[in-house]
């Protein structure tokens, strides 16, 4: 359906250097007593060493919080505690620095970048650098129509790829991947249920904090979306066009190109987990370049991470989104890298 050769990603994405990982593992014998005394922290350092391509991991000095934003037509079914079309307010709050993710980004030295892919507002309501890559306002209602046209899906996907190249070329050494949306967890539920071959009820969570009635509406919307997703499961771009959205297509493109460029990424919540699951279908080695930040309690997130064999680095039940869960893992990663770099033999 597009000019993107998705099969090429499988060949372009390499695994992190296994020899470097072994060298890193062996170094700890001369650094720490008792053996294995740093536990999972040493394993994180081994992963960082492998993705960086050197046995002594470099300290993380230029982390970036990258947040893709978009509204989703399915929010009109009252599946969220936030109003349909309300993503613009979430974006403004993040840019003003008052959200949990913005606060943590300042604290941990991660520069925040918000990318509007499909926010349902006049472009003039947000800064020009935020709206520069917008594909459209909102998305189609996935239960009855396609979320995107094929052309829009390709444009969003390519935008994600281009942003991965920008980050890699600018010297970013770790990306914390977040999202801002209304209706996004419903979209994620459709993708995860479709790709994992499970029922809607298994992946339907409370998202923004919905009550039982909203949960039932959300579950029904996911079930309707599944009927539209299953016929296009073999074509990832068609799947993103049918039941995704511009922010989902861009995030998927970003994840794949980041893996090509050997740029490590920390996933946030259920939305980034869903996109990772789509990307993993394209390039099975890509998850080796990703880490999962925080377990948020969403059943869909747990299902997706289990399928791509990633275990959250922290588990504090954080569900506020925007990259908060990924940021909570940043000090752990920074500490692991610093220990690898500075512990004396």
What's the gist of this structure?
With 345 residues, this protein is an alpha/beta fold. The chain has helices at residues 7-12, 18-31, 40-52, 87-96, 100-108, 128-131, 150-170, 184-196, 200-203, 212-229, 236-243, 246-260, 270-282, 299-307, 324-328, 330-342; strands at residues 63-71, 111-118, 174-182, 265-267, 290-292.
Task: Describe, in plain words, how this protein is organized in 3D.
The chain has 345 residues and is an alpha/beta fold. The chain has helices at 7-12, 18-31, 40-52, 87-96, 100-108, 128-131, 150-170, 184-196, 200-203, 212-229, 236-243, 246-260, 270-282, 299-307, 324-328, 330-342, and strands at 63-71, 111-118, 174-182, 265-267, 290-292. The protein has a five-stranded parallel sheet with strand order 2-1-3-4-5, sandwiched between helices. Helix 2 (18-31) packs across helix 3, helix 7 packs across helix 11 (236-243) and helix 13 (270-282) runs parallel beside helix 14 (299-307). It is globular and about 60 Å long.
């Amino acid at each position: 359906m597009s000019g993107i050769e998705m099969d090429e990603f499988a060949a372009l994405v390499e695994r992190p250097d296994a020899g470097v990982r072994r060298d890193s593992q062996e170094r700890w014998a001369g650094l720490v007593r008792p053996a294995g005394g740093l536990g999972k922290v040493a394993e994180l350092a081994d992963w960082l060493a492998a993705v960086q391509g050197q046995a002594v991991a470099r300290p993380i000095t230029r982390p970036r919080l990258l947040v893709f934003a978009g509204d989703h037509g399915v929010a009109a079914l009252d599946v969220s505690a936030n109003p349909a079309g309300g993503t613009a307010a979430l974006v403004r709050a993040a840019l003003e620095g008052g959200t949990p993710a913005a606060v943590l980004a300042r604290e941990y030295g991660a520069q925040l970048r918000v990318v509007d892919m499909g926010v349902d507002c006049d472009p003039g309501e947000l800064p020009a650098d935020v709206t520069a890559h917008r594909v459209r306002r909102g998305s189609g209602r996935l239960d009855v129509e396609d979320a995107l046209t094929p052309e829009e899906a390709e444009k969003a996907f390519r935008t994600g790829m281009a942003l991965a190249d920008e980050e890699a070329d600018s010297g970013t050494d770790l990306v914390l991947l977040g999202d801002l949306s209304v209706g996004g967890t419903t979209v994620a539920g459709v993708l995860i249920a479709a790709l994992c071959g499970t029922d809607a009820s298994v992946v339907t969570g409370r998202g923004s904090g919905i009550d039982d009635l909203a949960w039932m509406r959300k579950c029904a919307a996911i079930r309707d979306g599944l009927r539209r997703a299953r016929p296009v499961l073999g074509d990832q771009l068609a799947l993103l066009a049918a039941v995704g959205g511009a922010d989902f297509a861009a995030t998927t493109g970003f994840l794949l190109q980041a893996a090509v460029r050997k740029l490590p990424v920390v996933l946030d919540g259920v939305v980034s987990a869903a996109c990772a699951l789509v990307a993993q279908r394209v390039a099975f080695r890509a998850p080796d370049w990703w880490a999962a930040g925080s377990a948020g309690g969403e059943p869909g997130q747990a299902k997706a991470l289990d399928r791509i064999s990633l275990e959250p680095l922290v588990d504090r039940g954080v569900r506020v989104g925007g990259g908060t869960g990924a940021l909570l893992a940043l000090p752990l990663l920074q500490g692991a890298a610093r220990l690898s770099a500075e512990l004396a033999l």
